[in-house]
Each structure stands twice: as structure tokens, then as C-alpha cells.
Predict the structure.
Amino acid sequence: MIRVLLAEDQAMVRGALSALLNLESDIDVMGSAADGEAAWRELQRLKPDVLVTDIEMPGLTGLELAQRIQRHQLPIKVVIVTTFARPGFLRRALDAGVSGYLLKDAPAENLAEALRMVHRGGRAIDPQLALEAWSEADPLNDRERQVLRLAGEGQSANDIAGQLNLSHGTVRNYLSEAIGKLGATNRIEAYRMARQKGWL
């Protein structure tokens, strides 16, 4: 039996995924969570074999959950099911030790098959996305990504400096580095470009 925890912030999608997977004789949906922090608590309580998670969620994102599982060396496989067909997300997911990455518009039976494959120790990655993911590398480092994300959310350099315990000048340096690497004219354009590629 493959024991699964679902993390998905949209109640209708969460319910549909749960109903779909429970039709399979070898899959047991043990529980579900509507945000990343709740999912983290449930993971520790239920100890499932596989976490099926979306990327964008309140609290912790699916990628942050995968990174936390990796950091704590929990024996839980992660399968991401998302609408984001962005190569940058896939690359970051693979770096975080994710075993599966499927798009929500894939046929329903693909998910059960992917869970079986991942449970056996394999990988299940959307093939078209896998091709694109290796065609263009993410030029940003973690700090540049962090600073650019906050700037794109409308925070000033001073706000960002305070939040990340950096000096105002260091924040400006990270921003100008990110803008330069992306070939953008300003921070908003850089933010938009990086989001489109899945690098934020």
C-alpha cells in the first residue's frame, strides 16, 4: 500500500485528487493539508510514503516543503502536481530532491502510475518539461533570487535590508546583479522575467 499525503490549497482540486487516488486499490490517501505549514505538521504526524503537493501554497511552497524534507532527511518521496509548466521550477524541484513533477492537465491515470513509479524508487517527470528545463540555466544565486522576489512584491531596499539582515548597499548590489544577469532595464522587469522562467 502506498500511503499518500496531499498538500493543495484549492479545496476542490484537493477533494478531486483525493477521490481519484482512493479509487486505486494500492493507494491510501492518509490525509490532506491546505497550506505548507499544515502539510509539514501532517508529514511528521502521519509519516506517509509520498507527499503529493502543489508548488504555490500559503505558508510554505511545495518547493520549500521538499527542501525541508531533504534537509531533515525524512524518508518521504515528493511528487509535485502543478499548473506551472516552467523549466526553472522543475530544475529547482530536482535540486530539492523531488521524485515526480507532473502538470495538472495531464491524464488522471498518469498520477497513479507516477506514484507507483516513485514509490519503487524511480522518477516521474513530465517529458516535455524535462527537455526544456535543461535548455536554459538559472543565472541567479539564492540571495539575488530572495532580494528580487521581495523587490517584485513591492518592498523597498530598506525594507528588504531589514528583513534579510543586510545593509542597504548590499541589497542594491544584489538587485543590480540580478537586473544585469537577466538583461532587464529595472527591478520590476527583472522580477517579471524571472517569474516567467520559474526562477523565483
